[in-house]
Amino acid sequence: MVRMPEPESGPTDQISRLVSERLADDPGLTSTSAFVSVMGEYLVSDGSLEDLTVCFFRTTNGVRQVEVHGYDLSQDGTTLSLVVAEYGPGGGAMRRERVDRLVRRAAAFVEFVHQGLHIGLEPSGPAFDMTDRIHSAWPQIERVRLVLVTDGVTTLRTSPRTTAAGLPVTVDIWDATRLGRLIASGRGQEEIIIDVLGRGHTVPCVASVPQAGGYGCIMAVVPGQLLAELYEEFHSRLLQRNVRAFLQVRGKINKAINETIRKEPGRFLAYNNGISATASGVEFAASGDGTRIIGRLRDLQIVNGGQTTASLHYAAARGADLSDVHVPAKITVVVPERLDELVPSISRYANSQNAVSLADFEGNSPFHVGLEALSRNIWAPARPGETAQTRWYYERVRGQYEVDRGRLRTPAQRRTFDRENPRNQRISKTDVARVEYAFLSRPQIVCLGAQKCFQQWTTEFETASRDRPEAAYFRALAGRTVLYNGVERVVRARRSGGYYAQTTAYTVALIVHTLGAAGVAVDTEALWRAQQLRAELLAEFDDLAVRVREALVTPDTAANITEWCKKEACWGNIRARVRWSPSPALLTPLGR
């Protein structure tokens, strides 16, 4: 009898498995919060969200139901992103009336915060932190984005638009089909396809002959209005391979751009250096007055000129007329198979004249490529009492683990992969940053959030040395992760009501700081050999974490706890208030 290969699991099966694994790691979560947490990580990698704080909140405001599952404020402070979720349909239909109900509840949340009704919430809870932060940022907020995630399937062709508290609200729906594509892509980003003519534009251009390096170039003149519209719709996703954040119109360059738009829009083309972009495909045709881009631009990414693009959007949002504004552009057309190879270098050289942050080169530097290679070749020692060895899988690109697993055709092959690469030994780029900062005793950086922490770590450390790491570094990183994950497990097991990530970061930092002050270094090689923390060590860390959390949520002065944890003063407060004297017997294999 010939055994047929097991069919690939559908998107709802993938989503369900990921949610089950997150619940196993964090039993304190509800299934919906676990769903939001997992899918949020993919959406942040995709660029659909700059970052995400998962926070379920439900109440009533009069007769209106109020509900959200997470939020993010853009770095420029102008966009409030709210996540609303429906987990449970499991591939069933997500009908218009259910979508509209979730949108109404999220809009009611916006009204609730705008009216200041959050003041009656428990001040030490995450829901108060979320609502208070949004209320404080209200004067800068110009728009609201609702990101609706569901494991159901919708056939809606248009997303609803509405207003809340006087702000325009757009809705971005991620159903099981769309999420499944993102999970399975292994690229961490959904392809952007732009129909230029369908948007009412054409773009005059001159195309080069194909180049020997497997690419072509197009020199174009892009309408400023088109760039503003694209930034409005795609925001940071358009700059995924560039610097994601745009810090309003504060620097000299941004002010000059804004000044030209207001006073001399017809000279913008002459004054501005333009943008550099990449695409995997461009449709253009000859016309009576030359060649024009008239069709679809596939996978468009702006690798230099993010400030120009965001400034155009900033001006248009404030009523500026962009009809006379045109922007010079060089579009490098690269086949999809070579995007990840060529685009980081194009971005690096295009930005070489400016002092830019380096998170735009994220996963393709020698450091990350080298870390990935080490993780595939180094076997971890077997745990005490076991014989099977495993690997610590470094996920250089979000979703890479699922893609590698999904390539295997038989159940037996997948079981072998799971044994050799346990999910709890999967390390992402953002995991590296948070573990390293905790061990540098800088927990306030970890508390900035996964993406901001990673960006700062990349700027501060990886840019200084982009060399491939050595095996000793990989073993030390895995050893530090053993300690970090062990502390995180005991913190979450208590289900103490939130601030798990902050408590973990500060507890690990305090352990490292206290040992360092006593002249004891954490023995990462011993942790690597052990691959786990002893039960008595976990018990001691559990006691310490309880005291750290109590100090975090009871600051000396009234404060938003989430924001307080991001401050240097918070770290000083914890060091002063929480004293830890480790038992001498517990210093091995923890330290030496």
The overall number of domains is 3
Global geometry: globular
Query: Structural class, from helix and strand content?
Result: alpha+beta
What would the average pLDDT be, to the nearest integer? 84
Residue fraction in strands: 15-25%
Radius of gyration: 25 Å
| Low-pLDDT residue intervals, each spanning 5 or more residues | 1-8, 242-251, 353-361
Give structural notes:
With 592 residues, the chain is of the alpha+beta class. The protein folds into three domains: 175 residues, Trna Endonuclease, Chain: A, domain 1 (3-Layer(aba) Sandwich); 164 residues, no CATH class; 222 residues, no CATH class. The chain contains 23 helices and 16 strands. The strands form three sheets. Strands 7, 8, 9, 10, 11, 12, 13 and 14 form an eight-stranded mixed beta sheet that branches. The chain has a six-stranded mixed beta sheet with strand order 1-2-3-4-6-5, with helices on both faces. It has a two-stranded parallel sheet with strand order 15-16. Strand 2 and strand 3 form a beta hairpin. The termini are far apart.
